[in-house]
Amino acid sequence: MKISIVAITLILIETQMVIAKDIKITKDISSIVAKDKGVDVVIKRTQKPNSRLNSAFLNADKECPPNCIQPMSIGDVKTVGELEVLEFIKEMKDNSNMLLIDARTRNWYKKGTIPASINLPYTMLKKEGKYINKILTLLGGHKVNGKWNFDNVQTLLIFGNGVWDDQATLAIKSLLDMGYPADKLRFYRGGVQVWNLAGLTTK
């Protein structure tokens, strides 16, 4: 029995329709809109079949130190997952007191990051750092009698590369050591690697 070209074409179209799925973030959420440098960016999961993890995260053979597994919690700072990061990004659109911080060095940031984040490398958050006074002031801190007052600081959600990367951990520990309130900090432990693994939009 011969199959016509029309029949083959119909089979191919039907196959493509089966492959083309609406891959949602959750059962009820298809996407969210983030504000990134004044531009709306749609964050969703990739719809491409057979998508692969970003090549920067394929190698699991990461020597420790420096690439040691990070703790789930850092002091009293709340650890969050992807859905909480997405909710934070949504809230940021209407709340100037919230910042999504990519604590990785500039070379990592250039390889791709979470939309709406700003790059504030952990190296700039050292207690004796050259820019620390200016940074803490921009975050809402001010000095009273030579000591920092953090009553009106911004809420920061901080991330690095993932569970094997200490850049976010070091940033958070440094801020805590300087007196930044734990309830104004969030830790996305999964970082860019898990964000990529979930197929979420990067910029």
How would you characterize the overall build of this protein?
The structure is a single chain. The protein has helices at 5-19, 82-92, 106-109, 132-138, 167-177, 191-197, and strands spanning 31-36, 39-44, 78-80, 98-102, 117-119, 142-144, 147-149, 155-159, 185-188. It is an alpha/beta fold. The protein has a single domain, classed as Rhodanese-like domain (Oxidized Rhodanese, domain 1), CATH 3.40.250. Strands 3-9-8-4-5 form a five-stranded parallel sheet, with helices on both faces. Strands 1-2 form a two-stranded antiparallel sheet. The longest helix is centred in the first third of the chain and has 15 residues, at 5-19. The N and C termini lie far apart (51 Å). The mean pLDDT is 90.
Topology:
Elements: H1 5-19, E1 31-36, E2 39-44, E3 78-80, H2 82-92, E4 98-102, H3 106-109, E5 117-119, H4 132-138, E6 142-144, E7 147-149, E8 155-159, H5 167-177, E9 185-188, H6 191-197
Parallel strand pairs: 3-9, 4-5, 4-8, 8-9
Antiparallel strand pairs: 1-2, 6-7
Whole-number mean pLDDT: 90
What is the CATH H-level superfamily?
Rhodanese-like domain
Beta strand count: 9
How far is the first residue's CA from the last residue's CA?
51 Å
Rg calculated over all Cα atoms: 21 Å
CATH class: Alpha Beta
CATH architecture grouping: 3-Layer(aba) Sandwich
What string gives the helices and strands in order? HEEEHEHEHEEEHEH
Question: Helix share of residues?
Answer: 25-40%
Contiguous low-pLDDT stretches (5 residues minimum) are none
Number of domains: 1
Structural class, from secondary structure content?
alpha/beta
> How much beta, percentage-wise?
15-25%
Number of helices: 6
Principal-axis shape equals globular
